[in-house]
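Lecture notes, structural biology module. Today: joint structure prediction for complexes of two components.
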Amino acid sequence: METFSATYHIDTDADAIESRALGVALEQTVELPPGVVQDPFVWENVLGRVREITPETGPDARGFRVVVDYPLGASGLDPAQLLNVLFGNTSLQPDVVLLDADFPPSLTAHFPGPRFGIPGLRELLQAWDRALTCTALKPMGASPEELARLCRLFAQAGIDIIKDDHGLADQTFAPFAERVRACQAAVEEAAQETGRRVIYAPNIMGTPSAMRRQLELAQELGVQAVMMEPMLTGFPGFYELVTELLEVPVLAHPALSGAVRMAPPLLLGKLCRLYGADGVIYPHFGGRFAYSQETCQELARNLRQPWGDFPAAFPVPAGGMQVERVDELVRFYGPDTILLIGGSLYRAGDRLLERSQEFVARVHQASA
Amino acid sequence: METFSATYHIDTDADAIESRALGVALEQTVELPPGVVQDPFVWENVLGRVREITPETGPDARGFRVVVDYPLGASGLDPAQLLNVLFGNTSLQPDVVLLDADFPPSLTAHFPGPRFGIPGLRELLQAWDRALTCTALKPMGASPEELARLCRLFAQAGIDIIKDDHGLADQTFAPFAERVRACQAAVEEAAQETGRRVIYAPNIMGTPSAMRRQLELAQELGVQAVMMEPMLTGFPGFYELVTELLEVPVLAHPALSGAVRMAPPLLLGKLCRLYGADGVIYPHFGGRFAYSQETCQELARNLRQPWGDFPAAFPVPAGGMQVERVDELVRFYGPDTILLIGGSLYRAGDRLLERSQEFVARVHQASA
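The predicted structure, tokenised, for the full assembly:
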């Protein structure tokens, strides 16, 4: 019986842990009280099995780590049902955190993984030995012309990937089609001038059919990457676009992923990669969000470590980063990283081009 | 300037609250540091405004309640972007909880709300003055024949709505098409025998296009209601199916909604109703999940209270309920409620029909 496994933290006492662990295994599969399942087929092919219960260790440690094996068939190899088995109902139980999951090759074979990943994005950008740079077009409310002006400026500064802010949807002040047309033209013109290729990555967001239309248009217009928010618009839809329509790399954005009870290294590190992200944006420690240094390290490791045939995906640390932190960031992550500095560049006002050039130069230097 | 508003709990000190509140308003719209936005258009039409800051009250109260007004245009009136503005990035900040949101009629006019709601479901079931009954087909792993047998049994017992367990996807042991065909036939046969109409509600889950195919097939086969998991498969896709394809009532299931930092009365009470749910399943207090009595009360109130042209939607309390609690549940919620008892019925083993009949009789009596 092939299985995949989930690791949960369960916050309970030693005398309750066995029944709580069994409770999770039942909840996530048969959703019946203990003792009710009689059918040997269900017992064998569906029921989750508690494999391991170990006390958490370390100072202030409480509760237990529980590994549950789920038969592969319970997932139906379906991108929605997989998440449902991992954490569907248990997400509602406040004593449980989903820490990690492990998938056999027979499961991952049904998922795309990154189609470009680190090697593919480097090839596209012809940038081999250094960390990459990324910034965001903002603010929401700016016109397509203003966003295209910024896009050209960042392209002239040599920033590798210029992405839409995740708040740029299809609002009246910068409709998707106009914005993408103008920004893509801007990076192409800048490339003509500078001889250096940079990528504009529009934000794909809305209902499933709106996202499909946006993606088709963006690819027609020649964009070389896109951004999506899998927790906001749904992992199953992300999976579908990646497997059916997407011809360019995709960055995953963590909007609405504040389900703090799913560990970020799993959610953003493993699951985003499994479902096809080529790079994953997440809040770096010390910025205006609150991931710890260990979380960032582990998240980046999950994105880059060997995983079957999946290429490595880029960590894209972000969230209140400053140009002054570039050296530290490159030391921390190494060169297989995209450094995303957005809002703080804009503080430069009229010196935005110079500040952007400084960002680029610092990253190139720090990677040397 | 028309606005919609969000209410956040922010866990910080009195001397930091003003800047944290402003930080949230900026984060959720322009995503720029204070002072950078110069453009008067953006200032006027996009930027979130802190309207109110009040200290939390009560014993053990800490932190503040902050109301932020967002210009309607920031949402683009888009079902994905609305959630993004409410809690996209801020969901990543552990000091912030999204407590509530209020929407003007010019926003709700772009959302379906319940198409059937309490009056429409009562009409369908011809059940006017009592609480309704609901149970779940399980376990995952049972064959279509076995599920159809259970479906017929529950229909004979007179349970109003017989829904798939939310773990029934399109697995090999009970493929969607076979299962729905068999179960729908079972309720129709039972209706012939008993002269009483009950509804089978299959679980619609998968990628956006798989869900569309499932829904088309289910409606062709004559099903009279369906269930979906908006947090698992995405609110924008839920919105799209409701507005474009769905001809029957839909129950929303809370799988993966353990984002404890979005208050359940908002997420399950208001947002599910706004996006079109006719009934919303959620864990009742005292079961195997952990909502408080106040949370359940408030959630039910949000589903049923007057809201523009939207009909009321059914609260569907569930999660480890027992037949013995029926009286208490009906007293607590009143008759405009669907009582969902799943797993605990199955404990009856060979007496499942009798136990189901007892469930039905108790609800009818308690509502009298």
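Point to remember: The two ends of chain A are 49 Å apart (CA to CA).
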